[in-house]
Write a structure and sequence with these properties.
This protein is mainly beta and 218 residues long. It has one domain (2-215): Metallo-beta-lactamase, Chain A (4-Layer Sandwich), CATH 3.60.15. The chain is 10% helix and 32% strand. The strands form 3 sheets. An 8-stranded mixed beta sheet has the order 8-9-10-11-12-13-15-14, covered by helices on one side. Strands 1-2-3-4-5 form a 5-stranded mixed beta sheet, with no helix packed on it. A two-stranded antiparallel sheet has the order 6-7. The longest helix has 11 residues, at 148-158. The two termini are 12 Å apart. The mean pLDDT is 94.
Length: 218
C-alpha cells in the first residue's frame, strides 16, 4: 500500500488487482498521480477526490455519488468485491457538502474500508452496513471532514486492526484549513509513524483485540 496524499492510496490485492482510491486532480499540490491501475474508487465528485484523468491504462471507475445520492455499488473485479455504504460529507444532513460514499473493499484475508470525506460520527445502522473491517482509511483533519476526536470515535465503533490516517494537513497543503493528525493520534496508545513510500499491511503482526494507528507520509 502507499499513501499518495490527501485521501488517495494505491493498493494491490492478493490476486493482483491494482486499486487507487479518491485521486485528486492537478490543482492539488501533491505529486501528480500517474499510476497504472485496474480500479479507481471515487467517494464523491469533488476535485480533490475525483481526478481520474491522470491515471494510466483503462481503469474501471467506481463512482459512489450521482447527483445528490450515494448509489449502490456492488461489483467484483478479480479477487476484490467493492461495495458502497451511504454517508454524508457534513454533520448537517448533507446540506453543506452533500453525500459521501464509503467504499468497502473485501479481498482474501483482508477487508479495507475507505471512508472518503466522512463528515459525521457513524450510527449503528451504518456500522452494521459496513460490517467487518480490518484496515480503516479514516479522515482526521476536520473542517471538510470529521476531526481527530470524532475520527477516534469512528475507529472505536468499527474496531479495525489498523487505522490509517488521511486527509490531514501536511507541508504541501499547509495553507488548507485542516488540521494535522496530532489530535487523532493522541487518542490511541499504539501509534506508528510510517516513512514515505510503500508499506506492507501485515495483520498477523497486530495483536488480537488491539487497534494500531498508522500515520503515513509522502
Amino acid at each position: 500500500m502507499r499513501w499518495l496524499g490527501h485521501a488517495a492510496f494505491s493498493l494491490v490485492s492478493p490476486g493482483g488487482v491494482r486499486i487507487v482510491t479518491d485521486p485528486f486532480d492537478e490543482t492539488v499540490p501533491y505529486p501528480p498521480i500517474t499510476l497504472e491501475c485496474d480500479v479507481v474508487t471515487v467517494s464523491h465528485e469533488h476535485f480533490d477526490h475525483n481526478g481520474v484523468k491522470g491515471l494510466k491504462g483503462s481503469p474501471r471507475v467506481l463512482r459512489a455519488v450521482e447527483g445528490k445520492e450515494v448509489v449502490p455499488v456492488d461489483v467484483t473485479v478479480g479477487d476484490v468485491r467493492f461495495r458502497t455504504v451511504p454517508s454524508l460529507h457534513d454533520d448537517e444532513g448533507g446540506t453543506k457538502r452533500g453525500p459521501n460514499g464509503i467504499f468497502v473493499m473485501e479481498m482474501p484475508g483482508m477487508t479495507v474500508v475507505h471512508l472518503g470525506d466522512l463528515g459525521h460520527a457513524l450510527d449503528e445502522k451504518t456500522v452494521s452496513a459496513i460490517g467487518h473491517c480490518d484496515v480503516l482509511l479514516v479522515p482526521v483533519g476536520g473542517y471538510y471532514t470529521i476531526d481527530g476526536k470524532t475520527a477516534a470515535g469512528v475507529v472505536r465503533s468499527l474496531r479495525p486492526k489498523v487505522a490509517i490516517a488521511m486527509h490531514f494537513k501536511t507541508d504541501l497543503i499547509k495553507d488548507w484549513p485542516i488540521s494535522g493528525p496530532e489530535v487523532f493520534e493522541a487518542e490511541f496508545e499504539k501509534v506508528k509513524k510510517l516513512p514515505p513510500g510503500e508499506f506492507e499491511v501485515d495483520l498477523s503482526a497486530v495483536p488480537s483485540g488491539e487497534i494500531e494507528v498508522w500515520i503515513p507520509a509522502i
